């Protein structure tokens, strides 16, 4: 299962961690993993290309781990990240057995 952990502070996204594999289908044919990865990497690329923010990234090359942390957020970055979360939750609605999105409020 793909686990997505979202940490928010006062409705501002602070970090997103995605780990695991959906195991919906064989490697290379897994639409759940492909969809989640596309959403996460598209949003991350948007942050780098459309804002002046450079988040902290930790990515495992085997595709099983992604971590993004925002040091200083602004309205544009938060909007991109909230769009990412909505897209991941949309995938979760159709594939509950393969992806789980959890949100937590942090200090």
Topology:
Elements: E1 2-9, E2 12-19, H1 31-50, E3 56-59, E4 65-69, H2 75-94, E5 99-105
Parallel strand pairs: 1-5
Antiparallel strand pairs: 1-2, 2-4, 3-4
Helix pairs in contact: 1-2
CA-atom Rg in angstroms = 13 Å
Largest sheet: 5 strands, mixed
Distance N to C terminus: 28 Å
Query: How many β strands by DSSP?
Result: 5
Q: Strand portion, in percent?
A: 25-35%
* Poorly predicted regions: none
User: Approximately how much helix is present in the residues?
Assistant: 25-40%
**Number of DSSP helical runs:** 2
The residue-averaged pLDDT reads 94
The neighbouring-strand order within the major sheet is 3-4-2-1-5
From the helix content, strand content and strand pairing, which structural class follows?
alpha+beta
N-to-C series of helices and strands? EEHEEHE
Shape: globular
Outline the structure in words.
This protein has 107 residues and is of the alpha+beta class. It contains 2 helices and 5 strands; from the N terminus they run ββαββαβ. A 5-stranded mixed beta sheet has the order 3-4-2-1-5, covered by helices on one side. Helix 1 runs antiparallel to helix 2. The chain is globular.
Compact description:
This protein is an alpha+beta fold and 107 residues long.
Characteristic key phrases:
107 residues; alpha+beta; globular
């Amino acid at each position: 299962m793909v686990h997505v952990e979202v940490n928010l502070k006062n409705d501002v996204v602070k970090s997103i961690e995605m780990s695991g594999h959906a195991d919906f289908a064989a490697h290379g044919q897994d639409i759940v993993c492909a969809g989640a990865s596309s959403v996460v990497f598209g949003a991350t690329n948007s942050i780098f290309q459309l804002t002046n923010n450079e988040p902290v990234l930790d990515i495992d090359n085997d595709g099983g781990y992604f971590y993004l942390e925002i040091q200083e957020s602004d309205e544009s970055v938060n909007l991109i990240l909230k769009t990412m979360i909505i897209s991941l939750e949309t995938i979760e609605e159709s594939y509950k057995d393969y992806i789980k999105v959890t949100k937590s409020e942090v200090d």
